[in-house]
Write a structure and sequence with these properties.
By secondary structure, the protein is an all-alpha fold. 74% of the residues lie in helices and 0% in strands. It has eleven helices and no strands. The model has no long low-confidence stretch (mean pLDDT 87).
């Protein structure tokens, strides 16, 4: 109600973002999307609007639309508090819609400076699959190996080691395959 009574008030912009987040969390995506339609005056809130709009589109499986919102935020010259996270999510969305070159750019950029280890491992893991889709097998191998070296305790490490074991096995590199499979067995969690 406040938003409609005072549409140009700075608090209305904050309320619009808060409303958008609440609707997003309630999975009322069409209504949440509508809250992101109007440009906001405050730069920080405008960045939040871009981030929220990107998440709404990603949750709606509209990955190309998600990337249209997230890439500008991820690459904006003045970093926003959500810029780093936007890089990861933009990279994942770009990979989903087959824009592999752009996905590599965003995932590589995020992977070199992740917010946390699990997200760093996720970026490298997804990057490996993008490389495989691009037939860049050596780069995919480097990504899978990097996960086991940089993030050996992540939930992606055992699977990455297994995939490397398979790749070594197919190349008849038995010693490397054995090491990868041993890593996989030793680092699997709860029989995964």
């Amino acid at each position: 109600e406040f938003i409609t009574k005072f549409p140009n008030d700075a608090r209305a912009d904050e309320a619009r973002i808060g409303l958008g987040w609440a609707l997003f969390r309630l999975e009322r995506l069409d209504e949440a999307r509508a809250t992101c339609a109007q440009k906001l005056g405050n730069v920080e809130l405008e960045g939040e609007r871009y981030f929220l709009a990107g998440l709404i589109e990603r949750k709606s499986d509209r990955h190309k639309e998600a990337a249209k919102w997230l890439v500008p935020l991820a690459t904006y010259s003045q970093p926003h508090k959500r810029s780093l996270e936007a890089k990861l999510i933009a990279g994942l969305s770009l990979a989903k819609c087959g824009q592999n070159d752009l996905a590599v750019r965003e995932l590589s950029s995020y992977g070199s400076n992740p917010e946390n280890e699990e997200d760093g491992a996720l970026a490298l893991y997804e990057l490996a699959f993008v490389y495989l889709a691009m037939k860049r097998e050596a780069d995919a191998d480097k990504s899978f190996v990097a996960i086991t070296v940089k993030y050996p305790k992540s939930k992606f490490a055992a699977d990455s080691a297994f995939r490397m074991g398979e790749r070594f096995y197919l190349r008849n590199d038995w010693n490397s395959a054995l090491r990868a499979y041993v890593f996989c067995v030793e680092n699997s969690k709860d029989g995964e």
